[in-house]
Amino acid sequence: xxxxxxxxxxxxxxxxxxxxxxxxxxxxxxxxxxxxxxxxxxxxxxxxxxxxxxxxxxxxxxxxxxxxxxxxxxxxxxxxxxxxxxxxxxxxxxxxxx
Length: 98
What we know:
Strand content: 5-15%
């Protein structure tokens, strides 16, 4: 469930490179960047229980940010795949739990 939640969050967080240049970066790892606006949008889609856990525990906050970074990296790798590539369909079906 959490995997789906963050996948949905990341799907809703598409931005251009020019936007990154102007936006305040909250977290980054290599080319995976999460801006303040994206983080805010992700939090709005996060269930209240997870928000409360993250607010109370530093480890939970790191886990939330880490999940967003991981999803951003997975999305970047998925963008490299072509629909004619078998790996594309394997990734899609695994994300959909089909």
